[in-house]
């Protein structure tokens, strides 16, 4: 049982829930739910959700595989450095999830498969080469989330070419969180935290702009307000005292708040039913975050 829990810890289940929210937001952006409101086919949605669960789990597992030596010093309680799970076992575990993620997407359509493969490659490049790069590391991590949003959009394959640029928004948001996370162990810089706050405002402004264009502003604001509270309160506390513990809370809040951001995306494109379903994922992610580490 202890080893089983160790495997679950490797997956960061609270984070995995946020990846499902990414895909559901992408599906909302594609218009799939509105187009098929009278005869909604659930299988494509299920396949893409399985795909993102596999891809995100694989990426986060390999994060710990590549960081095993560093974690011996900074986070010795984790499953690999504690000796609970070997690097080989974790690598096989991660590879299985990557396989599931790519195959589930391939079953649906080739475009989804291509996006899934791109996510897998981006995850591995980040974990192996760019994680400790001050500039390219955060951008690469953001790319993973941006592609994950497009994985949802690929439910209507031709719409990936229409909405590809929306991937820039999660790239900016996750890049901000990744920059903040550099200070989780030894503390961070106030300048970095202020810059992250600026990027957060840019993300919020972008969603508001699309909501205004689509005449969906009131409902979108209803999701953006709690999102803003959730990300800015711990961030401002970290700015006041940028020690590792406060920064860790800001990072955790930023990751889980993705669910509210994705709900806002769904609302801004008129898919209010899907926005509510996405929000329902929030208590699940919060509950899992109390039992398993987010970062």
UniProtKB/TrEMBL annotation:
Any idea which GO molecular function terms this record carries?
transferase activity, transferring alkyl or aryl (other than methyl) groups
Where does this chain mainly localize? membrane
Q: Which Pfam families match?
A: UbiA
Alphabetical keyword list: Cell membrane, Membrane, Transferase, Transmembrane, Transmembrane helix
Which cellular components does GO assign to this protein? membrane
Subcellular localization: Membrane
Q: What are the TM regions of this chain, as residue ranges?
A: 12-35, 41-66, 90-108, 114-130, 137-156, 162-181, 193-213, 219-238, 250-268, 274-293
How is it placed in the membrane, per its record? Multi-pass membrane protein
Recorded protein name is 4-hydroxybenzoate polyprenyltransferase
Q: Which organism is it from?
A: Pedobacter metabolipauper
């Amino acid at each position: 049982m202890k080893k089983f829990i160790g495997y679950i810890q490797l997956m960061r289940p609270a984070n995995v829930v946020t990846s499902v929210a990414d895909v559901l937001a992408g599906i909302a952006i594609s218009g799939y739910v509105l187009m098929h409101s009278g005869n909604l086919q659930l299988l494509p949605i299920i396949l893409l959700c399985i795909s993102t669960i596999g891809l995100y789990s694989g990426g986060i597992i390999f994060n710990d595989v590549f960081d095993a030596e560093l974690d011996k010093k900074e986070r010795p309680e984790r499953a690999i450095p504690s000796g609970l799970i070997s690097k080989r076992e974790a690598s096989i575990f991660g590879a299985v999830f990557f396989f599931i993620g790519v195959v589930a997407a391939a079953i649906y359509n080739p475009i989804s498969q291509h996006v899934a493969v791109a996510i897998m490659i981006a995850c591995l490049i980040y974990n192996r080469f760019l994680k400790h790069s001050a500039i390219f590391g955060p951008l690469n991590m953001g790319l993973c989330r941006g592609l994950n949003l497009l994985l949802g959009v690929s439910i209507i394959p031709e719409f990936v070419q229409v909405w590809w640029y929306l991937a820039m928004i999660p790239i900016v948001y996750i890049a901000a969180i990744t920059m903040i996370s550099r200070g989780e162990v030894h503390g961070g810089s106030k300048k970095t935290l202020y810059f992250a706050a600026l990027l957060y405002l840019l993300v919020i402004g972008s969603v508001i702009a699309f909501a205004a264009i689509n005449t969906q502003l009131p409902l979108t604001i209803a999701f953006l307000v709690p999102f803003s509270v959730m990300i800015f309160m711990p961030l401002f506390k970290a700015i006041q005292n940028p020690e590792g513990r406060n920064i860790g809370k800001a990072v955790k809040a930023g990751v889980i708040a993705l669910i509210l951001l994705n709900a806002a995306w769904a609302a801004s494109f008129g898919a209010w039913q899907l926005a509510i379903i996405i929000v329902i994922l929030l208590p699940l992610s919060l509950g899992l975050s109390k039992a398993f580490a987010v970062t």
